[in-house]
């Protein structure tokens, strides 16, 4: 995971697979970034994610809840194939804002 900050907006560029093994670190990193005062909007970029399991989805639901509690925004971008399918099939995609995928990740 790589983070970029641009003013009040932060972007987390993810790669590979998000599974029960990587979810604890994924959770800690996103929550830490979201709690920074300079981060008012966090975009999670899935352009290079090939798989996410239900533990990763649960992390994102928790991060979304935290963002709303803090009065901040959480966007997902670059959802495709398997990651998009899991959000759509669980009916959770509608809870998230979708942003256009970054042109240069």
Question: Can you tell me about this structure?
Answer:
The structure is a single chain. Helix 1 (23-34) links the parallel strand 2 (9-18) and strand 3. This protein is globular. It has a five-stranded mixed sheet with strand order 1-2-3-4-5. The longest helix has 17 residues, at 54-70. The chain is 37% helix and 33% strand. It has a single domain (2-99), classed as STAS domain (Transcription Regulator spoIIAA). Helix 1 (23-34) packs parallel to helix 2. The termini are close together. The chain has 105 residues and is of the alpha/beta class. The chain is built from three helices and five strands, in the order ββαβαβαβ.
């Amino acid at each position: 995971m790589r983070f970029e900050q641009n003013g009040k907006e932060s972007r987390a560029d993810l790669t590979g697979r998000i599974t029960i093994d990587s979810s604890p670190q994924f959770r800690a990193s996103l929550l830490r970034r979201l709690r920074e005062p300079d981060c008012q909007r966090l975009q999670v970029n899935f352009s290079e994610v090939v798989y996410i399991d239900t533990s990763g989805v649960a992390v994102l639901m928790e991060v979304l809840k935290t963002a709303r509690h803090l009065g901040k925004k959480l966007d997902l971008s670059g959802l495709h194939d398997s990651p998009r399918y899991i959000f759509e099939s669980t009916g959770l995609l509608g809870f998230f804002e979708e942003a256009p995928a970054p042109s240069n990740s």
